[in-house]
Amino acid sequence: MKFFVDSADPAEIQAALALGLADGVTTNPTLIEKSGRDFQNTICAIADLVTGPVLAEAVSEDAAGIVREGREMSKWANNVVIKIPLSRAGLEAIRVLKNENIVTAATLIFSPGQALLAARAGASWICPFIGRLDDVGQDGMDLIRTISEMYANYPDINTEILVASVRMPRHVTESALAGADAVTVPFKVIEQLMAHPLTDLGIRRFLDDWKKFRKK
Ligand code: E4P
Question: Taking the complete model, does pTM exceed 0.90, yes or no?
Fold first, then answer.
């Protein structure tokens, strides 16, 4: 399973790269705004850091506007992928951009039906948001299992499942169990994944014993 970094912060992306956990990067308008940096400069800087896909989100609400943004952003770097919210306009834009060989990711996916339509339209990636489903009392992981099973029935579907809105380590491990192609993970969750209190305790004890032994 591929690991993407869910961040617009170059320092976090560098840290994930050092761990071999930056197969790609996802951004969204909220993350870009939080970074306080210019959109195009931020995407270009990130696209320089990683070789994999860098998802940059279109913000127009009509198909023509999304297509215009997609064409423009695709010129910023050859690994920029156009992230498009799943709506009627979004589906139309994905079809147009696909015909121009511009790579897209359908985002804000909350149902199996949306995932099916995104694949039909030609999205290379879909981003189902599991944390936000958990937030409203549904089991986000159920959506990943259903999409995974559904896509597996059709070997000609090449759309990859990139699990988004990941909030905790369990989301990552269960995505792997469900057969997701990739997860996009905030750096905080990467840190949580590598930590275990028994590992810390074990290291402490081994080091203490090592020091005692060497004193003898
Ligand atoms: C990434 O593609 C998504 O925009 C991001 O994972 C959303 O996460 P959130 O639901 O925690 O805002």
Answer: yes
